[in-house]
Amino acid sequence: SSSNMNRLFSLIFLVQALSFSYGFAPVSRVPTAPQPTALFAEDEYTSGKPVERGVSVDQDGKSNVWAIEPKMEVSTKSSEEKTQSALIAGGGLAAFAAAAVVILTNLPDPNQF
Fold first, then answer.
1. Whether pTM exceeds 0.70
2. What is the pLDDT of residue 73?
């Protein structure tokens, strides 16, 4: 019975592994020439603004990848909104701490089992 269960689970595992694996999918063999891109190349326009990519490819096909600094944004929240957010976060933390204390102090004694 144990042997049959092992065979059944092995078969189910194998079928699942093969059905969800893209490792056996056919690959298109159409060659594509590398497209040289300029330094600080821009992707397609998104909502009218160009989007910087941190990638370039030179004429030899060597690629270069670099970091792009995130744009800095100035907070537009008022001090009242910041205080309210801090109070809500503090209240959530206090509720979590209280729940943890109640749960941990009421755990069953592990020595009685």
1. no
2. 87
